Amino acid sequence: MDRYVRGDPEQWPPPDSHFGQALLDALALQPAIGLAALDTALRVTGSRLDPEHFNGLELAAGARLTDLVREQDAQALAARLQRVQTSREPLIAHRQRMSGTSELAVTMTALPLAAPPGEPAPLVLALVNATKETRRLDLLFDAAAMIGSSLDVAESSQQLASALAPGLGDEATVYLVRKVYAGEEPPERVARGDQGLRCVAMAPEDGTWPEDYIRPGTDLPHMPNTPAVQRFQRGEAYILPDRAAISEAMQDDPALMRRLVPPKATAVMQCALLARGLILGGVSVWRTAESGPFTDDDLQLLQEVASRAALSIDNARRYTRERTANVTLQRALLPPAGTDTAALEAAGVYLPATSGPQGAGGDWYDVIPLSSLRVALVVGDVVGHGLRATAAMGRMRTAVQALADLDLGPGDMLTHLDDLVLRFGESTEASYEDVLASTCLYAVYDPVAGRLTMASAGHPPPGIISPDGGFAFAALEPGPPLGVGGLPFEDTEVDLEPGSMLVLYTDGLVEHGHEHDLAAGMDAFARRLATLDRRADLQDTADAMARDIAPAKLTDDATLLLARVRETAPADVASWPVRDDPAAVTDARELVVGKLAEWGLPDLAFSTELMVSELVTNAIRYAGGPIGLRLIRDRRGKVLVCEVSDPSNSQPRLRRARPTDEGGRGLFLIAQLAVRWGSRYNTTGKTIWAEQALES
């Protein structure tokens, strides 16, 4: 006996002892432990198994053990048992799912019997029903794999509900504090009153619910101050074992029961979602009479799953808060969605990324009124996402607004902007340089000439939809992205018919759904644009195109800018050449006064005559011919534009004349009479312009 206790395998059974038989008898008489003998081919030669304790499992003589387990596990189990047969090392507490039974899992211990050296040994198996423990581990594993894969609060809540039903109950409901759902910090715990809970997720998602039952997105009604509610507000988890207890928790209010309790539910487990000592919300798991009562083990399992889910939801809440602030800043830095001028009608849409952690980025657009009724359309894409990209976008848009006031051509504008981006890079920390690269398209539309002039810094070309429905991308030769430096940007001119629609966009819009294949995205985008109703409201059209993109799948932020161009009627434009002769000033004044009388604007005759006199006189005195004079009437914007062009490149400057000066008051007077005024360069010199408001 002593040699056996010390582990001598040759002393079995112990001499002069009934220990071995007593041990076998003890094992055989335990209904919770199943015994089976296997031959060298892993066939059952005998067994002692109580089917009641093993969900009806039978180990019939002659059956192969590997035929009784799940098909996908058979080969691996055979290899394990064969290793025991050859190595004589037992297999201890191996967890194995069986087939042909009701969700049975067993803990299997395989012990080798004596056999000649070099030959496989027969085995004795000891089996214990581990279905309950396996179910618990499976639920925890599935919950861990499912919960936390999203940074969306609602999606994380739905993952929690789906992990609990049907895994732990028949139905599950997750509700969050409204502030948490919005990404804000949860409030401190309160002992009374409504915590402001909102139903966020339900499982099964496609369940049949009563008409007045809560739905995701609806707020929970005010709960009475019952002991059960107080336990929840203290963050405790508990079980209401029957419908009477559930009704008592709601003060026997039938309206609350209809709103909050599934019709067939007979028991519920309630658990608060706690993170950092604060209540983020709660989860309810319901069972019907067919599923049996909840146990304390079930409640403990719910608490484990809920604690993990609470951390994931809190992380998602923090991300939601940061993303909301980022998107809010991004939208605040963009212009109003709609613009309506004499030159065009425009509508813009910005879509932040919704798939992954990117959120808002550096995509932007702008519509900038220029002189002489012209309008600049701009769309750009700053590399990167997050606050850095948003800040870089804000700097970029501010720079474009400032440079646009100089009335530069598109190519010159991008050249100056390229220099600014290079300077930004020199004065920026190295960790921020990744967001300073940018693409940009700058286009200027002149409604008087009906011409679009544009240049691109690495940006895709705009789409043009003609009034007859034809579509094509503009034949535009893009330059390098901003921040490269040293390369030119070429202007491209396109004549547009009135009613033509321009489509400006960023690559996130066209690459969506095409795995960053810009060519394939452009083809699909062209087919989509060819079907647009060019007479429909622009904002409705832009919003509809945005809705076509699945919000949960947008991997990059995107911008869309639609513009329908107009043309200034020839009757609203008057232009004359002016002789390089001081006597021509009188003729210019008479021409302007006559045209204003023809347009029914006699009230502007004096101020316009004074402007023309000063501007033409300066052109004759300092620049010489040829000189041009033009008036443009904008009936929509109620603006009258007066222009004088000359061949000089000198920039006029406003200054205040001293009392003894004989000149220097002309531009000062013009600035007092005009709403806006300025000058712009062209290929032949410059144009000085001034705008006056027409009477309503």
TrEMBL record:
Residue ranges occupied by any GAF domain in the UniProt entry: 152-323
Record carries keyword Membrane: no
Residues of the PPM-type phosphatase domain: 341-565
Matching Gene3D superfamilies: 3.30.450.40, Histidine kinase-like ATPase, C-terminal domain (3.30.565.10), PPM-type phosphatase domain (3.60.40.10)
Keyword rRNA processing listed: no
Molecular function per GO: phosphatase activity
Source organism superkingdom: Bacteria
Name assigned to this protein: PAS domain S-box-containing protein
Organism: Actinacidiphila bryophytorum
